[in-house]
Amino acid sequence: MDRGSSELSLYLLAQLQDDMSTGRSPLIILSQRTDETIWSGERIRQVADAGLGELIQLDSLAPQEVRTLLRSMEVPALERMSEDIARYTGGNPLFVVETARHLVESNTLEGEFPAGLPPPGRARSIIQKRLARLSPEAFRLAQVLAVAGVDLSLEQAAAVLETSAERLVSAWREMEEAALVRGAWFSHDLVGEALLAELSPSIRGLLSARLARRPTQA
After folding, report:
1. How many other CB atoms sit within 10 Å of the CB of residue 1?
2. Domain extent at residue 152
3. What global pTM score does this model have?
4. Residues 131, 150 within the same domain
5. CB of 192 within 8 A of CB of 149?
6. Bridge pairing between strands 185-186 and 181-182
7. Which superkingdom (predicted)?
8. How many domains does one find in the chain?
């Protein structure tokens, strides 16, 4: 949903308000990613409270659902890679489709799922927009996590960034709100790959050296 369709939908909802009470109005389905701000949470609640709509929060696809989606594409190699694709995309349907398209168009379906696959197509643009909204401290924390390639405690990340773990709490929360992390790791591997693709060799080398000297977890 872009701003133009958002304004049109509000106009249509207002015009159809009387018909909606009788159940005779057409069904209007609007979709919006959680990181977009075209419709604020308050606006959505107002529409729902007025009885003009219902909010349905869609979750990521489970691994078996990713397999079902890939099976429908009728490319056996994609279904064989379903577990890797599910992990790489975090079950985001758009990212699954974009990744599958890239694998087919680049003729990389032979053998194992490729290592270090940069985010393909629209997936890259979406992730870059989310990363661009982060504060400098949250962005640096995301870079450290990407270079580490494994779960890090805030204490370990703080040692690498030469700051306090307390200061990184809000940075981690910021990444959670941007749907970039889930639990102790990125919400999907594409985030880490997008960060690594834009990271200069000098910064990557510096972070790698600091990570090698980081204190181990108790």
Report:
1. 15
2. 126-212
3. 0.66
4. yes
5. yes
6. antiparallel
7. Bacteria
8. 3
Q: What is the dihedral of CA 197, 65, 48, 174, to 10 degrees?
A: -30
**Is residue 133 a part of any domain in this protein?**
yes
- Tens digits of residue pLDDT in 193-207: 889 988 999 999 999
Q: How many contiguous H segments (helices) and E segments (strands) does the chain have?
A: 13, 2
What is the secondary structure of 137-188 as a DSSP string? HHHHHHHHHHHH-S---HHHHHHHHTS-HHHHHHHHHHHHHTT-EETTEESS
In sequence order, which residues have a C-beta less than 8 Å from that of residue 38 and are 6 or more positions away?
1, 2, 3, 6, 32
Burial class (CB in 10 A: 0-12, 13-18, 19+), 64: exposed
Asked if residue 58 belongs to a domain, the reply is no
Q: Are residues 113 and 151 in the same domain?
A: no
Contact call for residues 88 and 189 (beta carbons, < 8 A): yes
pLDDT digits (tens, 9 = 90+) for 157-176: 998 998 998 989 999 999 98
What is residue 214's three-state secondary structure? coil
Distance, CA of 65 to CA of 59 (rounded, Å): 12
Return the structure tokens found at 187. 């919400």
